[in-house]
Design a protein that fits this description.
Helix content: 25-40%
Number of domains: 2
CATH topology of the largest domain: TIM Barrel
Radius of gyration: 21 Å
Strand order of the largest sheet: 9-10-8-7-6-5-4-1-11
CATH architecture of the largest domain: Alpha-Beta Barrel
CATH superfamily of the largest domain: Aldolase class I
CATH class of the largest domain: Alpha Beta
Shape: globular
């Protein structure tokens, strides 16, 4: 494959906080039920050491976004989050309009912290609602109620958050189309700036994988999909990614950077990163020590693995992200962010275009609406 010079894309920071109150049966993330008091100070100390080790990877770029994920980051105190942000800004400059998101659960204990998080510098919340039906929440192993979910949104607004995401799942055990659409209508009525609307999938190494629940039939899932997309569009939520819908200008900038093959540092137990190294004409992926106890014990390096993406893997790596976006990405991003010429994919792209699965190869790389429905088939060509 012919190469072109790599260019530095925007830089984000992902911070993983691995503890939660209870492990949900569908969750395959690196999360661990907290059985004792959290070692918050020790973990924040470790995060900052971890970040210090990665500073050379920033290559003098400011941070465009920060995302606290988990686990349940809102289990930490607002003072802990504030310390992380203050110390991070001393090490890496923040862009003037930086987006700082924190994942939160609707439990009443965490709602009391929302104002503190806002004062700490968090300017966007992602609230894990999942459903507004108590029976479905119980089946999902969630510890909050529908009433807690409604109260959480009120608490977020009262704390000064006008930019927040609601996480909602559909295709839940024994869920009907009507119940799924009812959940979505309740979410829309709360007027969030962003809704993540995704289907429950059964992942390996989860309780649901070991003991699968009865999920809705395909015809019900199709009905949910069609009705929900019409409803969201009618209410002013534009789909910009497979499972992401937002009001105008409120797309998740952090996730957009992932999907546009931007760079991100990953710190915290099990956190992943992706970094461009133009001088080496190389893109690397990093992963940090996974288990919290092992992570806390590290003194020198927090790395569990670091490897370069092979040249022949780059087209698929890029397309797996970029083609999730409804609008696609500028064609020039492929050359700048993979170091490969557009000619390296032109034959595969033409085959897909002949099948009406992708748009004509011009100023942007994008699927057709049909191609988005058959995205896995599209990706097989790369």
């Amino acid at each position: 494959m012919s190469q072109t010079p790599l260019e530095l894309p925007p830089l984000s920071l992902y911070i993983h906080i691995p503890w939660c109150v209870k492990k949900c049966p569908y969750c395959d993330f690196n999360s661990h039920a907290a059985r004792t008091n959290l070692p918050e100070k020790e973990y924040v100390d470790a995060l900052l050491r971890d970040l210090g080790k990665d500073l050379y990877l920033t290559q003098d770029r400011p941070l465009q976004s920060i995302f606290f994920g988990g686990g349940t980051p809102s289990l930490f105190s607002s003072s802990g989050i504030s310390r992380i942000l203050q110390e991070t800004e001393k090490l890496i400059p923040f862009s003037g309009d930086i987006e700082i998101t924190l994942e939160a659960n609707p439990g009443t204990f965490e709602q009391h912290k929302f104002q503190g998080f806002r004062q700490a510098g968090v300017n966007r919340l992602s609230i894990g609602i999942q459903s507004f039906t108590d029976r479905h929440l119980q089946k999902l192993g969630r510890i909050h109620s529908a009433a807690d979910a409604l109260q959480a949104v009120k608490s977020a607004r009262r704390a000064g958050f006008d930019n927040f995401n609601l996480d909602l799942m559909h295709g839940l055990p024994e869920q009907t189309t009507q119940q799924a659409i009812s959940d979505l209508k309740q979410a829309i009525a709360l007027e969030p700036s962003h809704i993540s609307w995704y289907q429950l999938t059964i992942e390996p190494n989860t309780a649901f994988f070991s003991s699968p629940p009865e999920l809705p039939q395909e015809n019900i899932l199709d009905s949910i999909q069609q009705q929900s997309h019409h409803l969201l569009a009618d209410k002013g939520y534009k789909q910009y990614e497979v499972s992401a819908f937002s009001t105008t200008g409120k797309q998740s900038r952090h996730n957009l950077n992932y999907w546009q093959f931007g760079d991100y540092l990953g710190i915290g137990a099990g956190a992943h990163g992706k970094i461009t190294l133009p001088e080496k004409q190389q893109i690397i992926r990093t992963a940090k020590t996974r288990l919290p106890a092992d992570y806390l014990a590290r003194k020198d390096s927090f790395l569990a693995s670091q490897k370069a993406i092979l040249q022949d893997e780059l087209p698929l790596e890029f397309m797996m992200n970029a083609l999730r976006l409804n609008a696609g990405v500028p064609t020039v991003f492929f050359q700048e962010r993979t170091g490969l010429s557009i000619e390296s994919i032109s034959a595969a792209w033409q085959e897909l275009h002949d099948l009406a699965l992708v748009e004509n190869l011009s100023e942007k790389l994008a699927t057709t609406p049909r191609g988005l429905l058959f995205l896995n088939s599209v990706l097989e060509r790369f």
